[in-house]
């Protein structure tokens, strides 16, 4: 079983996205996933998942998950700046 | 200082046995005159109880206020003006204007004659009898003035009857039995097991267990209710037989499951003689189970760690040291690691077995002294989805009711919980309500014992496939919505309209219908429809759930699905209804309340909440991180990756209890500094560099919070074996890290908690002593606490329906792993078994077995007792097979109470999407016959042997 942390985190966001997508509009799902990550993920995990956006195919992030992580990246950048 | 028994804790109804139970408190008042004393009592009160309340004590033997009146001994005979004869006071209810005489010559003669007959068939060995000093028969002989036994002792008698010693904790000596039936009635009325009966008639009547067999061979579950009820020494604790009568007692709270029973710890000096369930306990009302009542011997077991120990590497022997050296060794290492790897490279795990005060201090140490939010607790692996799901829908991360509320429920749904095994005292209360006629619906892959409740009519069992909870709860809600069973008035008044509309559109879709989900859940559409109708139309519908709900990849979704169902039917906000998580460990509710989670400060206040964080910063005098920290599984991943280097674990055995053992072991081995504080060398401690002796619940003051949000006092009855209570150790470590904490008593910690946590604002030790217990929220708005939540509104204003899309788990049966493994608990063992394995509870369960359905066994040529290799994608272990039809074919079951079983070697890292709570309840496996232990087990045995040797060497050195 793989325990590479980047892979694990991508898997986690995809799972969150799947669970927050059902019965909702895409924009609502993206917002839901992003705020979930902001609320529950540690700083290091956020940095790591944001870094996955630079990997080929965004490290395997599913579409809603990827949009959510992109939004997270913007929020983080704003917070840091 | 040890607090001795304080009589002010007991009011009159608790201080003595009033003979018969209290009637409904709201019954009409009735005035009677007893021996010229006028007293007013509620209608339905017996003459015996009314007299006792007026301090007129009528002799009695078969009556006790924990049981319904029986009227068999006739000792409580009285005379009533205008009535003939001498009726029994226990079975005679008061009537307006009644005039009762309890003492005169005629009654005295009558009582003396009765006692004379009893004593003519009773051994006269009072001086050497274990009940000497605590015997109701002896007391009554004295009270009635028995002076002679005219019949002699030569006639037919029971004096030679043999004692049954089979139960490890109590003996049954029928020669001393007066056949009052109190034990038989306690087994029925209080425990609900019906293991005891009166065998034979007339003079031949004897108490018999099961089919007249030894107690251990019968259905007896050793709850102790019969021992408690026995007025003589017939049923007697072996600890009292050995030690004699206790001389003082202290009321405290049990440290086993989340029921949180109150007990009197009965003592001789600092030796605990017995634990007696406390009648005034608001959670247990005088009942107990085999764990809390009897399994306390671990506290003084020779395996207890009593000396701090350190070592540089985990393949080195331990070095016993003084406290100061151990603490400074730990602090130096933590600081060095932070200097080299950064502030976030260390963290800690709080204990759900320690007190609120201790848990609070550990998370404070992490946030304030470590300077990060890397704190988590065992709730991560059990009820974290409850926190998430209930906070999202109802606005508060806790159950909505009291335990007593079940007595007003008309329909009870139990999902993924096994109350008779895991929450036995509450299970007994639930069974009592079921015997009164409440409907029962059980949604569980296994046929749990609750379904076998005697006198239960018409129970519904929905035997769903593991992993399909959300599909089932959606189908139930679909029926409620489409068959017009909603409580529209409640929804309009109490729920968020927009969220409700969205949910209603979602749940009404045909794909959620029972017919559409039948093939997913394996439960027939008709059964689902019937269950939904029962729940929605019974009147008061109550849902109880356990880890079978939370420990899934959709644990949080399922919790929200349950809340949706309760909201849609208006089953929230009053007695008899509600959403009730049955929490596992004694203080797991408390550990969550106390801010153990990495994203929440005490009282579920988010770390990013500027105002809340500001209050803590001001009180603690430090700047706090506004970003959440790592959760336990994230800590493991980060440790393996190399960015997380040190961990402080108080009273938690992650190496045994957490899933995917080999992954956990790899993570623990990667740490540069593991500090374990525990009462034993647990599995985690075998990977530690610093081992700090913990203290048991008997050795410290504090509070536990049970599953009904009830804060109960834990009182010290003996000094800590290693000299320090757990909170004192944390204080020392904080000081060594340069963050002094100044507390002289846990009450001061609670005062700080009350200042910083709005839901605890009204809690203090004084108020707890005054009230016995308090249920949070306890503040200005609810000064005496909150038994029932959400009566008027929700903490988030209106209840929020949540969309609960069913997503199948990735962990599914395949050709390689065709069976689904689910894990659970049994009555006699507790969690990782560190406590119960060191008691005589071992006689009930000394190994974990794997239960296999006979049809799955047959195709694999498996016989009962065969060794089976159980393999998943995570690992392999070997367990002994037990054939059982409690699961459906295709599902196998085991427990995780023994470390060498390796149940968690096979469970995987798959987890709840929202909280990372592991999916213990679904693992795809294959089983096959094998002839030797698994590779992991052989490695485990070798490592275990080596670590025990290290400990033994250290002990020799210390002594």
Description:
The complex is a heterodimer of chains A (81) and B (959). Chain A is mainly alpha-helical and 81 residues long. The radius of gyration of chain A is 12 Å and the shape is globular. The longest helix of chain A has 18 residues. Chain A contains four helices and no strands. Chain A has one domain. Chain B is an alpha/beta fold and 959 residues long. Among the domains of chain B are: 97 residues, Roll (Ubiquitin-like (UB roll)), CATH 3.10.20; 242 residues, Rossmann fold (3-Layer(aba) Sandwich); 198 residues, 3-Layer(aba) Sandwich (Dimethylsulfoxide Reductase, domain 2), CATH 3.40.228.10; 125 residues, Barwin-like endoglucanases (Beta Barrel), CATH 2.40.40.20. In chain B, helix 17 packs across helix 18.
CATH topology of the domain at 311-381 and 587-757 in chain B: Rossmann fold
Count the strands of chain A? 0
Shape of chain B: globular
Q: Span from first to last CA of chain A?
A: 38 Å
- Class from helix and strand fractions of chain B: alpha/beta
Summarize the structure.
The complex is a heterodimer of chains A (81) and B (959). With 81 residues, chain A is an all-alpha fold. Helices cover 74% and strands 0% of the residues of chain A.
SSE layout:
The complex is a heterodimer of chains A (81) and B (959).
Chain A: H1 5-21, H2 26-40, H3 43-52, H4 63-80
Helix pairs in contact in A: 1-2, 2-4, 3-4
Chain B: H1 12-15, E1 29-34, E2 37-42, H2 47-53, E3 79-80, E4 99-101, H3 105-119, H4 136-144, E5 170-172, H5 182-191, E6 196-199, E7 206-209, H6 225-229, E8 235-237, H7 238-243, E9 248-253, E10 262-268, E11 271-277, H8 290-294, E12 309-310, E13 319-320, H9 323-341, E14 346-350, H10 356-370, E15 375-377, H11 384-393, E16 411-415, H12 419-422, H13 424-435, E17 439-443, E18 460-462, H14 469-482, H15 488-494, H16 497-507, H17 514-521, H18 525-537, E19 541-545, H19 547-550, H20 555-568, E20 579-581, H21 588-593, E21 600-601, E22 605-606, H22 610-620, H23 632-641, E23 646-650, H24 654-657, H25 661-670, E24 673-678, E25 690-693, E26 702-705, E27 710-714, H26 726-736, H27 746-756, H28 765-771, E28 773-775, E29 819-824, E30 849-852, H29 854-860, E31 867-871, E32 876-883, E33 891-895, H30 903-906, E34 923-929, H31 935-958
Parallel strand pairs in B: 1-4, 14-15, 14-23, 16-17, 16-19, 17-18, 19-20, 23-24, 24-25, 29-33, 30-32
Antiparallel strand pairs in B: 1-2, 3-4, 5-8, 6-7, 9-10, 10-11, 12-13, 12-25, 21-22, 26-27, 27-28, 29-34, 31-32, 31-34
């Amino acid at each position: 079983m793989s325990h590479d942390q980047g892979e694990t985190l991508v898997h986690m966001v995809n799972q969150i996205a799947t669970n927050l997508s059902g019965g909702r509009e895409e924009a609502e799902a993206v917002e839901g996933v992003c705020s979930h990550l902001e609320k529950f993920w540690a700083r290091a995990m956020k940095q790591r998942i944001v870094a996955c956006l630079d990997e080929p195919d965004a490290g395997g992030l599913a579409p809603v998950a990827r949009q959510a992580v992109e939004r997270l990246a913007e929020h983080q950048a704003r917070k840091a700046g | 200082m040890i607090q001795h028994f304080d009589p002010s804790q007991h009011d009159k109804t608790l201080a003595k046995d009033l003979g018969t139970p209290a009637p409904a408190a709201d019954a009409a008042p009735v005035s009677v005159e007893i021996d010229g004393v006028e007293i007013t009592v509620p209608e339905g009160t017996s003459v015996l109880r009314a007299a006792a309340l007026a301090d007129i004590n009528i002799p009695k033997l078969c009556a006790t206020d924990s049981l319904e009146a029986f009227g068999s001994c006739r000792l409580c005979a009285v005379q009533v003006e205008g009535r003939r004869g001498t009726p029994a006071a226990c079975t005679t209810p008061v009537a307006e204007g009644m005039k009762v005489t309890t003492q005169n010559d005629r009654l005295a003669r009558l009582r003396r004659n009765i006692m004379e007959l009893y004593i003519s068939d009773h051994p006269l060995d009072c001086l050497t009898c274990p009940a000497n000093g605590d015997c109701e028969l002896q007391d009554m002989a004295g009270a009635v003035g028995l002076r002679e036994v005219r019949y002699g002792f030569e006639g037919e008698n029971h004096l030679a009857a043999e004692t049954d010693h089979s139960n490890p904790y109590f003996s049954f000596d029928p020669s001393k039995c007066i056949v009052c039936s109190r034990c038989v009635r306690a087994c029925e009325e209080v425990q609900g097991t019906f293991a005891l009966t009166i065998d034979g008639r007339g003079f031949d009547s004897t108490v018999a267990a099961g089919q007249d067999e030894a107690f251990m061979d019968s259905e007896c579950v050793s709850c102790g209710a019969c021992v408690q009820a026995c007025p003589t020494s017939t049923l007697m604790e072996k600890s009292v037989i050995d030690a004699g009568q206790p001389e003082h007692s202290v009321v405290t709270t049990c440290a086993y499951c989340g029921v949180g029973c109150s007990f009197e710890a009965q003592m001789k000096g600092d030796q605990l003689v017995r634990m007696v369930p406390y009648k005034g306990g608001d959670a247990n009302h005088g009942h107990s189970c085999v764990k809390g009542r009897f399994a306390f011997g671990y506290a003084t077991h020779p395996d207890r760690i009593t000396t701090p120990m350190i070592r540089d590497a985990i393949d080195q022997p331990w070095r016993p040291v003084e406290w100061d050296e151990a603490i400074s060794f730990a602090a130096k290492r933590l600081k060095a690691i932070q200097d080299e790897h950064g502030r976030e490279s260390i963290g800690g795990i709080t204990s759900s077995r320690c007190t609120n005060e201790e848990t609070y201090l550990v998370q404070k140490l992490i946030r304030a002294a470590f300077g990060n939010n890397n704190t988590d607790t065992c709730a991560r692996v059990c009820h974290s989805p409850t926190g998430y799901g209930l906070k999202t829908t109802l606005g508060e991360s806790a159950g909505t009711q009291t335990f007593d509320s079940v007595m007003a429920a008309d329909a009870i749904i139990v999902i993924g919980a096994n109350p008779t095994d895991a929450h036995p005292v509450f299970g007994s209360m639930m069974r009592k309500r079921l015997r009164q006629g409440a409907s029962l619906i059980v949604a569980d892959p296994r046929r749990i014992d609750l379904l076998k409740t005697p006198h239960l009519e018409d129970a519904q069992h929905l035997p769903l496939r593991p992993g399909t909870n959300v599909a089932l709860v959606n189908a139930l809600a679909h029926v409620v919505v489409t068959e017009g069973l909603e409580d529209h008035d409640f929804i309009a008044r109490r729920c968020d309209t927009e969220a409700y509309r969205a949910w209603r559109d979602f749940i009404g879709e045909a794909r959620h219908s029972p017919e559409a989900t039948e093939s997913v859940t394996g439960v027939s559409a008709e059964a689902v429809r019937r269950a939904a109708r029962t729940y929605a139309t019974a009147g008061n519908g109550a849902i109880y759930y356990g880890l079978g709900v939370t420990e899934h990849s959709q644990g949080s979704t399922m919790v929200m699905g349950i809340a949706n169902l309760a909201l849609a039917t208006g089953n929230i906000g009053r007695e008899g209804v509600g959403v009730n998580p049955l929490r596992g460990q004694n203080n797991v509710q408390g550990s969550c309340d106390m801010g153990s989670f990495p994203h929440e400060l005490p009282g579920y206040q988010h770390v990013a909440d500027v105002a809340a964080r500001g209050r803590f910063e001001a009180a603690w005098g430090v700047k706090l991180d506004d970003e959440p920290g790592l959760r336990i599984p994230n800590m493991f991943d980060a440790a393996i990756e190399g960015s997380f280097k040190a961990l402080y674990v108080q009273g938690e055995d992650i190496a045994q209890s957490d899933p995917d053992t080999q992954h956990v072991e790899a993570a623990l081995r990667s740490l540069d500094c593991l500090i374990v504080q525990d009462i034993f060398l647990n599995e985690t401690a075998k990977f530690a560099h610093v081992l700090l002796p913990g203290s048991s619940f008997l050795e410290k003051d504090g509070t536990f919070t049970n599953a009904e949000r009830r804060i109960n006092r834990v009182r010290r009855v003996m000094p800590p074996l290693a000299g320090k209570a757990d909170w004192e150790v944390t204080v020392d470590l904080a000081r060594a890290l340069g963050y002094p904490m100044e507390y002289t008593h846990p009450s001061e910690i609670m005062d700080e908690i009350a200042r910083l946590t709005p839901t605890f604002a009204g809690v203090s030790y004084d108020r707890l002593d005054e009230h016995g217990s308090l249920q949070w929220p306890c503040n200005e708005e609810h000064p005496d606490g909150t038994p029932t939540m959400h009566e008027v509104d929700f903490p988030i204003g209106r209840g929020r329906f949540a969309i609960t899309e069913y997503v199948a788990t990735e962990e599914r049966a395949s050709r390689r792993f065709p069976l689904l493994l689910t894990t659970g608990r049994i009555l006699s063992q507790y969690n990782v078994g560190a406590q119960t394995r060191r008691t005589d509870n071992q006689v009930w369960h000394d190994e974990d077995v794997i239960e296999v359905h006979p049809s799955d066994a047959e195709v694999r040529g498996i016989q009962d007792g065969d060794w089976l290799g159980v393999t998943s994608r995570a690992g392999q272990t070997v367990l002994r097979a037990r054939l059982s039809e409690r699961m459906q074919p295709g599902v196998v079951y085991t427990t995780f109470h023994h470390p060498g079983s390796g149940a968690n070697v096979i469970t995987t890292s798959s987890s709840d999407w929202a909280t990372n709570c592991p999916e213990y309840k679904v693992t795809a496996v294959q089983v096959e016959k094998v002839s030797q232990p698994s590779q992991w087990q052989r490695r485990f045995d070798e490592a275990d042997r080596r670590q025990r040797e290290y400990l033994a060497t250290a002990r020799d050195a210390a002594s």
